[in-house]
Amino acid sequence: MRRIVAVLAAVGLAASVPCHAAGPTAFPAMSEEALAPKIAPKGYDVTVIVFSDYGCPYCRKLHNTLTQLLERDRRVRVVYRDWPIFGGASLLAARAAIASQWQGRHAAFNAALFAQPGRLTQESVEAAAKAAGLDWNRLLADMKARAKEIDTVIARSNAGAQALEFQGTPGLLIGTSRLGGAASLSQLMEAIAEARKAGQG
Length: 201
Fold this sequence. Notes:
It is built from nine helices and five strands.
């Protein structure tokens, strides 16, 4: 844990831990940033931080596993750190996903993006937005008006992922455990159990 916190501090990502029901995470700058999308059930006690790219097929597989996890364990919070490393369409999707929060539709848009068939394109991002019930023109306007905020979140995710030595997407942080690739449900549950036992939020 000390090494991970030190690494984050070295790249300017250390932050004070806010008060909530769970114990503190080892990565507060990654888990508590206000604009990083989250699924946070009341009374959660463990946080799963996910670094992902909407153009990554392994991230799509992991999304399905996370859906199963959230159905099985109602005390898990998920924090999404968009890390678009697959090109322009991935960056567009990441920006749009963050901006979708201002319409209260991130969860639906996140699912719709991962449900798009084939290679991610600008057209498929727009199709996912419409499937999620988003106003596309408003989404574009929000992305333009708040571009600095959005790009800051993405840049911090990129710095955090690199500092933690992830080689690609997806990457997960659970307690002090780092998992790379499309982790299985059993792997996630094991890491969550270890974090709970250690009192790590």
